[in-house]
Each structure stands twice: as structure tokens, then as C-alpha cells.
Amino acid sequence: xxxxxxxxxxxxxxSAGRRSLVGRKYSxxxxxxxxxxxxxxxxxxxxxxSCEFIxxxxxxxxxxxxxxxxxxxxxxxxxxxxxxxxxTATVLENIVVRGGKRAAxxxxxxxxxxxxxxxxxxWSRAGMANVELAIDFSGLAAPDSEVVGIPLSxxxxxxxxxxPVSLSWKDSEHWNDLELSPRSYWRMNLLRLRDFNCTxxxxxxPFPDExxxxxxxEELARIESAGILKR
Length: 231
Fold this sequence. Notes:
- With 231 residues, the chain is α/β, with parallel strands linked by helices.
- It has helices spanning 3-8, 118-128, 185-195, 213-225, and strands spanning 19-22, 25-27, 30-31, 34-36, 46-54, 57-58, 62-64, 68-76, 84-87, 91-98, 106-109, 135-136, 146-148, 155-156, 162-166, 200-204.
- The strands form 3 sheets. Strands 1, 2, 5, 8, 10, 12 and 14 form a 7-stranded parallel beta sheet that branches.
- The protein is globular, with a radius of gyration of 18 Å.
């Protein structure tokens, strides 16, 4: 089995036992798809260890699904139609995602209700308990990235590009004094946290060419000046 066939065998459900990719390096490859999992850790899980994907691309999905265990993997400058979709029903350790504004963004979310079994969720929680660094995306400048469902203590980001948002903002005595619009970008991020049943997450700061950029940044400055945001 060559490298590409081995990589593609990691995508989709399997009852053939654990599948693995170890020590592989891909550079300037165009893939039909970049999918890891889904897997079931107890019968057909997916292990990816010490691999690199540099300046690669796909015209299809780019995702890490439930049941994947990934350690020491680099994704550098990946091009894809959508963001890199990452399920938190995984075990991630020392994953590095970086790239410029044209690289695929990073969207990390808890699975939807019923999408992952209780056994996989417990496996993920147990595996992540001893992880010090899950994802380092401090070198990712892509817009519209957000990482929700992994403790901030296990993440590394660039405070000039990425903003840590917490539901505790609303507990500040100064929150109501800010008089943010009901459709404020920052209020919307708080709603996203609530929808995912998470208390905190990291969101990419607005880019200058975004709609209402000035008002978003003005509100951010007020939040920070009030001592609510601590980068």
C-alpha cells in the first residue's frame, strides 16, 4: 500500500481494526480528500503520529473526525474549499496548524448531540486529561477560525490575531455598561459558546476587509479597556 492509499484508508468507518499513519511527510500534494476518521477507538480507531502535510491542497473536505488519536502532526499552508473541521471527540496532542490568510481556517467543535457514543466521549476525555498542548495555531493567520471545546490551557494562539472569549465576560460588573449592540460580533461569539455548551473558546479577530470591521474593533477595544478581556 503506497502513502496515498494508506492515507485514504483512514477516512470513513471501518470494522477492520485500528488504522494508522506514522512518520509520513507530504509536500505540495493535491489530495482527493483530507479526511481522518471517523473511527471507533474500541474496534476501528485511527492513529496518526509524527506526520507532516506542507503546502498541500484538496478540492474536497478537510477534517479530523471522532475517534481519531493524533500526535505530533503538522499542517502547514493547507488549501481547501472550507476550514479544517476538527471534532473534540478525539485525542489531540502537539498538533500544529499554520499558514497565511489563504490557508484553510481551523474550526474545532464538540460533536453534535448523538453524533458520538458515550464510550468515545469518555475515551476522548480520558485521553485529553494528560495532554499539555493539544493544538498550536499561533502561526495561523487564516480568517474565521474558531476553537471551541478544548480548554484554553491546552491551546496556543497568537494574541494579536486570536481572541479568547469566555462566558464569564457577562459576569463582569462592567459588562452592561458597554452597551453593546444586540447583534454585536462579540455577543454572537458568546451565543456560539452557549450553543456548544462551552464556557470558553478562541476566535479570530476581525480582518480589515470584513463588514463592520471598525465597529467590531471599537467594541473589542472597549471590552479590553474595561478589563473584561485578558489576552
